Each structure stands twice: as C-alpha cells, then as structure tokens.
Amino acid sequence: MSGDAHRAVDAVWKMESARIVAGLVRMVGDVGLAEELAQDALLAALEQWPEAGVPDNPGAWLMAVAKRRAIDHLRREERLGLRHERLAHDLATGQETAGVPGAARTAEDDIDAALDGEVGDDVLRLMFVSCHPALPAESRVALTLRLLGGLRTEEIARAFLVSEPTVAQRVVRAKRTLAALKIPFEVPEGPDREARLSSVLGVVYLVFNEGYAASAGDDLMRQDLCREALRLGRLLAGLAPGEAEVHGLVALMELQASRSAARTGASGEPVALHEQNRGRWDQLLIRRGFTALLRARQCAAPFGPYVLQAAIAACHARARTAEETDWAQIAALYEALARVLPTPVVQLNRAVALAMARGPEAGLALVDTLVGEPVFKGYHRLPSVRGDLLARLGRHDEARREFERAAALTLNGPERAILTGRAAACADITARETAGAGRGTPRAVVTLAEAADAFLARDDLDAATVRSYRQTMNRLRRDLGDDIPLPDVTAARVAEIFGAAWGDAAPATWNRHRGAVRSFCAWAAAAQESIAGRGPSTGGEGLSAAQEPAAQEPATAAGGPPTVARGSSADAPGVSAADQGSPVGDPVLDQGGGPVGSVGGGSVDGPGGGVPGDLAAGIGRRPEPRGRTRPMDRPQVEALWERPDIAPRERALWLLLHESAAGTGHVLSLNVEDLDLAGRRGKVATGSGWVHWRSGTAELLPYLVAGRRRGPLFLSDRRPGPGRPPAPGDLCPETGRRRLSYERAEYLFKRATGHTLDQLRTR
Amino acid sequence: MRFLMTTMGGDMAPPTEAMHAEMAAFVEEMTRAGVLLATGGLDPAGTHISSSGGEITVTDGPFTEAKEAIVSFALVEARSKEEAVELARGFWKIVGDGEGNIQQVFGPED
Description:
Shape of chain B: globular
Strand order of the largest sheet of chain B: 2-5-1-6
Largest sheet of chain A: 3 strands, antiparallel
Low-confidence stretches of chain B: none
Structural class of chain A: mainly alpha
Structural class of chain B: alpha+beta
Order of helices and strands of chain B: EHEEEEHE
Helix content of chain A: 55-70%
Low-confidence stretches of chain A: 92-117, 439-443, 532-610
Radius of gyration of chain B: 16 Å
Oligomer: heterodimer
Number of strands of chain A: 3
Helix content of chain B: 25-40%
Mean pLDDT of chain B: 85
Strand content of chain B: 35-45%
Shape of chain A: globular
Strand content of chain A: under 5%
Strand order of the largest sheet of chain A: 1-2-3
C-alpha cells in the first residue's frame, strides 16, 4: 500500500474533519457517535484511496460515506421517527444510491449541496460544545484539537507531553460528560453567550501558549500548536465575524507569532522584546494581525481583554526600533485592560508602561501599591521593576537592594547575571557618592559584605576553595543584604537561607556550603582576637581591610543595555482571559525553590565586638551517600528509550552516554571527522582517549551525521547570532550551526527526566 | 510550513467571466482561512539580472520561453506537503489546463 496515499488521506482528513464531524453531530445528536461514524469514513478512505486513487472531491467523498454510515446506524437503531424524515428530505435524490460509496458522484454532490449552507453553523456549534465549561480545561483542549483540528490522539499526546492513554481518556470522558449532561448542539444566545465564547477563546489561546512555550529542541508537533491555534482562531473568526474578541484573539496570536524567530537567541535563551532584532519579525503575520485588529475595531462591542492585548502588541509591532515605541498609547491601553482584567500582573505591566511614558516616578507610585500582593511572592519581576525605577530616580542604594532581591529570586542564570551586575553598578555609584559627600565617616560596625570580602581575600586559600566559599557568601549577602552589620547575622537567619537555597540540593552541596559558613565563623573569631587590642571600630588588618566591596565586581552593566525589567514586560503572552489554566508568563509558574527549611538553633549573637557566634548552629551536617551520584535504575533507562517524545539528537546523545559511560564533556566534544563508525568508536577532541559505543548508538549515528564530513557531531538547533561567534572548532562548516553546549544538553535531559546526564552512565 | 505555488504561462485558455468569479471566491475563502498569505500575477516580461565576478548585468525581458515564465504565484501556509497539494488541486480544478510547481519555503524553524 502506498504511503503517499496514506499521507494524502491524513491531509484531507485534517482539512475536512471538522465539517464532517459537525455535520454528523447534527444528524445523530451525539458527539461520541458522530466521531465514530467519521472514523469509519476515514477507514474507508484508507482502504480505498490507495487503490482507486484520491477522488476528485475528497472532502465530499468522506462526507458522503460518513452520512451513509449515519443513516445505516439510525436505521439499525430503528430511530426512523422524526429525525429520519428530516434526513430523507435533506437527502432527497441521494437516497436511492445510498450505501454504495464512490458509485454515485451526483448523489454526493447533492448531499453536499443540500447541507452546505448549514455546515459552517455546525462547525461553530461543535466548537461551542467541545469547549463547554462543564468539561475540565484539559478535556476541552483535547476534544477541540481532535474534533476541530483533526489531530490524532497520538499527536495531541506528543504536543502536550503526556501519554496517549491520558489523552484518549480525556476525550472519552469529555464525550461521556457531554452526553450525560445532554448539552444541546447549538450556538448559545443571550446572557450565556459571552461566557461560553470566552471559554472557546480560552481554549484556543491555551493551545497557542502551549506552543509558544515550546523551545527549539521540542517535538515539532509541540511547536506546531501555535499554528494549529491560529488556524482554529481564523476559522472561528470566519464563523463568528461579528465578535470583536474573536478578531482580537486572532490579532493577538498573529502578532505574537510574528516575533517567534526573534524571541530566542543563538543558544536558546529568551531575548527580551526591546532587545529583539526587529528585522526578524515576520511582516506578513504582522500585517495579518493588523487586519484582524481592524476587524475587531469595526465590531461595535466594548473592547475585551483580547482586543486590548492585541492593540498593545500592535503598538510594539508598529515601532521600527524599541525607542520609537508609543508608550503613552500602551499605558492608556493597559489602563483600559486593567479595568476589564484587574489583576496585579496587568497592573505591573501598566506601571512599566507608565514609567516609560511619563517617567519613573509615575511608574514607581503604582508599583509601590503592588508590593505585598501574594501573586508576586517569590517572583523576581516586582523587585526587578522596582529596582530599575529606583535606579532611574537616582535612588541607587534602594535600587541595589531590589536588584539583589530580584537576583536571589530568579531561577534563570543569564537573567540573574544581569541583575547582579546592575546591583553592583548601583553599589558602585553609592560608594562614590558617599566617598564624595562624607569622606572618612567612621563606621561603628563591620558589615557582612566587608567581612566576607576580607575572608575571601586571605592568601592561604586556593582558588577553588575561594570560588566555592564565594558562592556561599554571595548567597548570604544577597539574602541578608550587604549592609547588614555582622552582629545582626544570626544562626536562625542563616538556617532559613540554607533551607530555601539548598534544602533540596544533594547532601554534598549542603555540606559544602555548611563548611564555608563554619570556616567563616572560625576566621571571624580569630580575626577578632588578633585585632582585639585595637578595638573593633577602628578597623585594621582583619575585618575592615576591604573598604570597597563593590569595586571587585566589574560594573559592566552600568551604562550598558537597559534592564531585564523593562523589556521582559510585554512579550510574554501573560495576561489572558479569565478561566484558563496558567498562561505563559503567569508569575505563579515562576516560583522559587521549595518551602523554607526548618528554622533550627537559637539566635546566637556574637560577643559585643561584631563577631557572630556559630552561624552554622542551625544547619546540621547531612549524611552523604557513598557514590557521588547514583546512576539511573535500569527500568528508568529502558523506559526512556521507549518514549516517543524524544528528539533524535537527544536520543542519540543519551544512548551514547549510556552505552559508552564516557563523560558528557568528552562526548559533546566528538567531531564527525574523528568517528570510526565501523569500529563503533570516536576519538575525543578534549583528551587523548576513545569513546566506545554499542549497537543502539551505532544505529542512530548515521542519521545524526547525515552526510556531514566534519565539524561537531552534536549540533545546536540554531545558528549562532552575529554578535557571538563560537570558537572555530565549535562551528560546523557545513551547516553553520554551533556545537551543542553542555548546559543546553543538561537542561533538555533534566526537563525530560529530572535527572542529570551523569546519571546515565553505567558504572 | 509555507509553500510557494507558481503557474507557468503557455497555452492556458484566457479566463472566462465565470472562472473569474469562481477564482475570486476561492481566493477569498483561502485568505479568510489564513491559508493564502499572498498571491499575485507576474509580468512575463521581467528584468533579468546577473552577477559575475563583481559585475552586475541588467537585461530587460522577456527572458525565457513563454511557457517557462512564471506568470502567477501564491504563498500558502499548510501543515504538510500533502495539504499543499490538496489546495493546489482546488486551484487547478477552477483554472483547467496548465502547469505549475509547488515548493516549500524554508522558515527559521526548517
């Protein structure tokens, strides 16, 4: 049987299934039954088309077969009452040839013509039914993609990273609920309509956001969700052209999709809106977005959340450079949005826009009213916005504290680096200001920052130890503040920070940080003794040797690019209509680590002179397992190879790591020219040894090499941006892509399995 | 996936009134569905440009045989090559005889 014909059937099915299923639901009155009958028609096509060829009008063919099945079914059920009479009328001339698929083209045409006028309405009805609020959100999504999008269960499962049975179950349960509640097959009118429509829009936008959150390494099916949502949205807009919010949603999705090529950098990191290369925005989609927005504006309804968000997105799309952005307009739109969608996240975005439009004071006034909103707890965006506004107002010391807080809260490495840099820059300015204003003001006590710097400046520690200790001290400084007097640092606070920062970490990590704190305490006590004669407040060799804590960090970000805070505001499709799950960018998704660990130990203050007591009193040593990391269990590894959602590159890398037991760095350093495919081994570029593999890897490698003759074996998905050329050895001369980085590989594995790559190695 | 569909000139029959109306409806429907991104007819007498060794030569058309010249194009968004083919079928059913090509347009994700 020919695969081409199968793919043709699949394509036709995806284009026609919504009309077919919708028509059948109207005939038989039950979504589940209608879908079964439609599947029968699909099976008939799969049987006949490969031999007889694809019919002239494949959609009508499928529709005709499905309808005959429906009539057969109704006859069998002996429900030939009213419903069948109506049908018989509809089918008038088609009746006598019914039951012989493909035999009567005229009959098909007639059936099609008889029902054509109403099919559009049927599709709209089907949309309202499959997005019915009585169904749980994930069932609405699954059912809609299946019935309206024509996606197979397996495709939906891959897109949403869940198993096939899970999706099948959601669909079955949804159909059962619809039947049990006798949900009518109709387009709701009256007061119900608005809520029902918002449920439909919510489902479409949820699908879009799911696709928008997908990254380059993900299954293509997942990335395709954006396009599927756009298709559903456009379909809906054609069926309900009088609804402003429908056009608003379409416009919002088109405009967001227009930025998809520009919103990630060369190594997959997110790029904030104001830093995006606007030359990579898709002008075709932008134009479509504008057109949809125009249609929305032509509808007389008061503008809802989708139209307003689309209008904001359009303001960004219109600006040829970030500087040209019409912030006054955006601020006004956010104000309107806050009226229909009064959430703190919308308010925060509005504050950012206000600050851009009318100056930082206006923004800060609004931000200050949001401090303490539970939704921002543990979320870095509020302090980072606040820090930015404070810095622009010249309140550098307050700004520094906000940046430090934000840096401690974010889980994103690059973002943290920027925030830490900004904090350092603020500290630098503050230090210069105080030096200029009140030179030589005596300090009563040593601060944590000064003590930590002096501790790390000792020359009896090797570099690795200093680096490790610095991590611990930096974490304490971030959470407690640089300016906290050393005596105010208590064991209880330290224990709290440990619980939050490393409560879930491996015991070895925990113990390493604990060791650093203990060493610091011992050093502080000794230093105190050695300078006791001169008194703590005068300073001296010990505690206050380093007077300019901020100077050691190069203040690169001082005059550099604008903030994370400003830019990250608008690009996430964050704010969204009421009843959907958690949209992308919703702060609740971005929480920090687990709950704060138990607070142990009393507060043991140091003896008067500024030396803390045993700060490690509240942190117990944790037993470390014998092996450093336990490899994954065999069943876990076996299960991994069975998963359908693993991209080929990842599958090959993981298998290779598993079979070779080689280090991840070595494996990633492999080059195509150093492979000995026949000998199942490769020469490591970073060392002198060979990596050996077995049959599983050997089978996959040819696909990965794909005819290349040299360059890195494992390639990143994207070409490097012009600003950051990789080392020549890390660039594939044939595809222009760079070598897959350890960080990215580790991230993908962690996300897929929760383990680290090292745990794949058999020992 | 985006596809560029092109039609060649040659022995295509001149369009009738009915064909015009049918095509207009087809284009409208495809545009509304978001399938048709851009379309247009092309002047067969174009301008030929060639660059060789840093030298750029511009020649006024016609530059090919009439039956090889591209006379119209449509940029469509489809989920698969097969879907694009189905769309093309719809087009050719209206036009009648003639020939053309379908080529995938690579985007950033391909």
